[in-house]
Amino acid sequence: MIAGPQQLPLLGTQAGFRQFSVPEYHRLIEIGLLTEDDNLELIEGYLVNKMSRNPPHDGTLQVTAEAVGSVLPPGWCLRVQCAVTLSESEPEPDITVARGNSRSFFVHHPGPTEIGALVEVADSTLAGDRIDKGRIYSRAKIPVYWIINLIDRQIEVYEQPSGPTPVPGYAKTTIYRPGDAVPLVLDGVTVASFAVDDLLP
């Protein structure tokens, strides 16, 4: 997760360095220049620090992952804080619902055509998850994007992505609050609904 557009990347044109492509980022990992201990993700060509997590975030993530994982139909799998490969970014969403099974991604991360839904749990990262991640995911045509908004105690569901337009975005936003049920939609089909109260702390 990222803190928002005001956060300076570690490497990139804003800091006087060039941006990295996804293949270059993979190469930095392959040769050991970047490791999992560096706590970085690639966002639109910039190497950005992943934010630290607090108990409400991690608790919400665990509850949501267990709920979503328990209802996935055959042919879908759940991934938690694992990378997805997009055209200019390789973020690590809190939850990815991907087409395949637990053995499908030994040689590659899920790409846009393999992703049914992404979920971010947001408190201090809310602005970045709405603006930056929303732009990145809509550009990649991720069909369903949830933000579990811990600040306002609501779940924001974004649908109908624009794709790679000059100003990427989602055409449809639905807000679900306590007392509501939020649907999980995969391939245009509602596979389950969850009480918002059951997912929030």
Query: What is the strand arrangement across the widest sheet?
Result: 3-4-5-6-7-8
Task: Describe the largest sheet.
Answer: 6 strands, mixed
Question: Could you tell me the strand content as a percent range?
Answer: 25-35%
Helix content: 10-25%
Shape: globular
User: What is the SS-derived class?
Assistant: alpha+beta
| Radius of gyration, taken over Cα atoms and rounded to an integer in Å | 16 Å
**Total beta strands:** 10
Mean pLDDT: 89
SSE topology string:
HEEHEEEHEEEEEH
Low-confidence stretches: 1-15
Task: Please provide a written account of the structure.
It is a single chain. With 201 residues, the chain is of the alpha+beta class. The strands form three sheets. A six-stranded mixed sheet has the order 3-4-5-6-7-8. The chain has a two-stranded antiparallel sheet with strand order 1-2. It has a two-stranded antiparallel ribbon with strand order 9-10. It has four helices and ten strands. It starts with 21 loop residues before the first helix and ends with a helix. It is globular and about 50 Å long.
List keywords for this structure.
201 residues, 4 helices, disordered N terminus
List the helices and strands and how they pair.
Elements lengths: L21 H9 L9 E4 L2 E4 L5 H15 L6 E5 L14 E5 L15 E8 L3 H14 L4 E6 L4 E8 L8 E7 L4 E6 L2 E7 H4 L2
Parallel strand pairs: 5-6
Antiparallel strand pairs: 1-2, 3-4, 4-5, 6-7, 7-8, 9-10
